[in-house]
Each structure stands twice: as C-alpha cells, then as structure tokens.
Amino acid sequence: MEFNEGYRVFNDITRAEKRSNRLVVLSLTFMLFSFLCCTYVVYRVNESAKNSFYLLDSGQKLATVRVKDYKRAIDILCEGHVGIFHELFFGLEPDLGFIKRNIEGKALYMVDRSGIRLYNRLVDQDYYEDIAKSGYSIELEKDSIIIDYSSYPFRFRFIGKQKIERDGETEYRNLVTTGYLMETKSTPNNLNGLKIVRFDVLDNKDLRK
Fold first, then answer.
1. Helix (H, G, I), strand (E, B) or coil at 36
2. How many CB atoms lie within 10 A of CB 96?
3. Membrane: present as a keyword of the record (predicted)?
4. Which residues pair with 146 in a beta bridge?
5. Backbone φ and ψ of 54, nearest 5°
6. pLDDT 10s per residue in the chain (209 long)?
7. Per residue in 154-164, is it b (16+ CB within 10 Å) or e — as a string?
C-alpha cells in the first residue's frame, strides 16, 4: 500500500513537472512570436517612413506623399516647396490680415533673409496697403519650375505670371524668380526641411495686352 501511494505521488509530481515544462515552452514560444511580430512591424513602419514625404497642399493643409523612387521624391519635394512659397508670397487678396497670415505666418519660414528683406522692402513701400485699399486681387499662375540637381545647393528658376483683377479688368504681370534650395531641419513651421536661399526676382514687369 505504501509503495502504491509513493508511486502515485511520484507520478503526480512527474505530471506536474511536465505541465510546467509545457507552460514554459509555450510561454517562450509566445514571447518569440511576439518579438518577431514587433520586429516586422517596426521594420515596415521604418520602410514606410523612408518613402513618406510631407508636402503642403495649396498652402493650407498637410498632405503625405509616398514615393519609392528617391529621385522622384526629391523632385516632388523641391518643386512643391518652390511652388507653394511663390503662391503664398505672390498670390494676394485685398485683405492685410490674409496677406500677413500667408507671408509672415507661412512663406517667410520657407526662405532665408533674402526673402525677408524683399518683404520688408515692399512693406516700406506700402505695397500691401495699396492692394488692400485698391480692392484688387492677384492670382499666381505657374508656367514652370526648373531645378538644377547637378550641384548643391540646388538652383531653381520659377517662371509664371500674376493675374491681376482690378476694377473689373484683368491685367497680367510677368514673374521670373531664382534662388537656391538647401536642406534644413524640419520644424512645425517648415515640415519640408527645405529653405530657399539667395532669393531674387529677375522680372516682374507688366505684360502688354
């Protein structure tokens, strides 16, 4: 009787050890599976982030563009930065609050001191006040943006027109600018991580009808 009792106790201990071993194996398997899943998710997120580029959509809201071709992504990023800057800086409405929000609150974060000097010069000449008082609006029409990627910083040329609505009449003014694009730190006010430097207006003459 004592032998049977001891044998039963020994079997119970053995079964308990087997259950414990199975739990340990299952736990380790689960932990390994979780680790592999987490590693895969992190990898996918990093790869997605590498192919994600931020652009301003019409100067108002943020859009994310996914491009696998790095060169194409740089093209989109640089052209978008130049295009949006010009739209904010040269597209004007007869509203000083609107002008300041677009230029001081957005465009000037995209350019260096060369753009700030131009803006201050126009302010000193009462250019924006004249627009507000005269009640006419200026819409920017882009023809082309040419960027030279053969050397850094990237030189660009913007070619377009300003469509001026004044007293029921429409006039056009030529707009050709140039400058360079440099990489900079991304900030909440400049998510593209680019800055226009040595900005200059080459032509802004009225076009003959």
1. helix
2. 13
3. yes
4. 157
5. -95, 135
6. 554 555 454 455 566 566 666 776 676 777 777 777 767 666 554 544 444 554 444 444 334 445 455 666 788 889 999 999 999 999 999 999 999 999 999 999 999 999 999 999 999 999 999 999 988 899 999 999 999 999 999 999 999 999 999 888 899 999 999 999 999 988 888 888 899 999 999 999 998 76
7. bbbebbbbbeb
Cβ atoms of residues 162 and 140 within 8 Å: yes
Identity of the residue numbered 18: K
Note the pTM of the prediction, 2 decimals: 0.69
Question: Which tokens sit at 179?
Answer: 């400058």
Q: Are 80 and 148 in contact (CB under 8 A)?
A: no
* Cβ atoms of 142 and 129 closer than 8 Å: no
In DSSP notation, 19-48 reads HHHHHHHHHHHHHHHHHHHHHHHHHHHHHH
Other CB atoms within 10 Å distance of the CB of residue 67: 15
Compute the distance between CA of residue 199 and CA of residue 79 in angstroms, rounded to an integer: 15
d(CA 141, CA 90) in angstroms, rounded, equals: 10
For residue 185 the two structure tokens come to: 């730190």
